[in-house]
Inverse folding.
């Protein structure tokens, strides 16, 4: 197949930051996607509806003039989130979910939830009002091996959450393991999951074999090949529980190429092209549209997009960097050729 036209996709997990980084990255997403779920892990985090509305306005102002892109906002859950705020989100046209970061799990997660069981009262309200809870599913205790953090989170935390709140709408974000795939497959229909392009295309060798490659370092970290294969199988299976969420996470090049480099892969410049490459490798390009354009909208109870986008088999070279001197970002696959191009 040399050409593929699908309904316009959405990105159900995206970081766009603020200021000059936002202005550098937002057009990349708006060129491809109709909507995106915007992560709230700013400094300070977006914890209240009013802050989310102000952030939404900043994103709208950073968009190219002709863009029809819609940012779908989220709030950052903390131990002190007021119960009222959950009802406010349920009533809001623009704020769609809460994000749970276990404290210390990743970039700007210090204000996250340290004791997840202490947040059970908040989960009960989300369950009652039908507000989705988006979960970064990793334990953070220093004694756990970084490659086991997702599996241990599922065993020790997520199982308790789904048992106690069977109707809570949950998105387990950026799956990285076979165990996470199995958990989502076995869960009720109100539990879905996003999968990133890097976790479909790469295993942990990409970060470590032949040198340390910081632009492949994200959290949850890339895992062994058996896990990549399980994710690819899930994403291309046509199971509507699995949908597109890039977790595109821009950081300045200087903070990635650093003795303590930040976690996050910048993939928004070529998101759909990267997914197409993975689906083609699996021989399942016919399953891309459901994963990219239908299942996420259905899960969130939003209408499917009516526009279309076309991908062409026509190689192009990814630039070495995007942005200007004050916001230089090195994209995933910098300088390499990608086989698919969005036309
Ligand atoms: O790699 C990551 N980067 N994982 C996350 O969970 C957060 C993200 C970021 O904000 O940079
Ligand atoms: Zn993320």
């Amino acid at each position: 197949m040399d050409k593929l036209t699908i309904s316009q996709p959405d990105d159900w997990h995206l970081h766009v930051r603020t200021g000059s980084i936002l202005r550098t990255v937002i057009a990349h997403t708006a060129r491809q996607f109709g909507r995106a779920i915007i992560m709230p892990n700013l400094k300070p985090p977006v914890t209240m509806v009013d802050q989310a509305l102000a952030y939404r306005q900043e994103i709208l102002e950073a968009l190219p003039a002709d863009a029809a892109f819609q940012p779908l906002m989220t709030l950052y859950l903390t131990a002190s989130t007021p119960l009222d705020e959950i009802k406010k989100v349920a009533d809001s046209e623009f704020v769609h979910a809460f994000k749970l970061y276990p404290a210390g799990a990743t970039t700007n997660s210090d204000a996250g939830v340290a004791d997840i069981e202490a947040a059970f009262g908040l989960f009960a309200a989300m369950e009652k009002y039908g507000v989705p809870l988006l979960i970064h599913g990793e334990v953070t205790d220093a004694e756990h091996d970084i490659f086991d953090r997702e599996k241990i989170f599922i065993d020790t935390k997520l199982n308790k959450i789904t048992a106690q709140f069977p109707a809570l709408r949950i998105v387990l974000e950026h799956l990285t393991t076979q165990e996470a795939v199995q958990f989502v497959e076995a869960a009720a229909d109100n539990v879905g999951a996003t999968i990133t392009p890097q976790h479909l295309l790469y295993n942990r060798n990409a970060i470590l074999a032949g040198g340390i490659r910081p632009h492949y370092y994200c959290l949850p970290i890339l895992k062994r090949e058996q896990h990549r294969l399980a994710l690819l199988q899930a994403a291309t299976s046509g199971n509507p529980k699995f949908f597109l969420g890039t977790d595109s996470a821009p950081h300045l090049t200087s903070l990635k190429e650093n003795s303590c480099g930040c976690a996050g892969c910048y993939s928004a410049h070529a998101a759909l092209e990267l997914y197409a490459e993975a689906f083609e490798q699996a021989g399942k390009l016919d399953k891309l549209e459901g994963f990219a354009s239908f299942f996420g909208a259905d899960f969130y109870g939003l209408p499917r997009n009516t526009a279309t986008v076309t991908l062409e088999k026509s190689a192009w070279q990814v630039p070495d960097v995007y942005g200007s001197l004050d916001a230089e970002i090195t994209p995933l696959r910098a300088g390499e050729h990608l086989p698919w191009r969005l036309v």
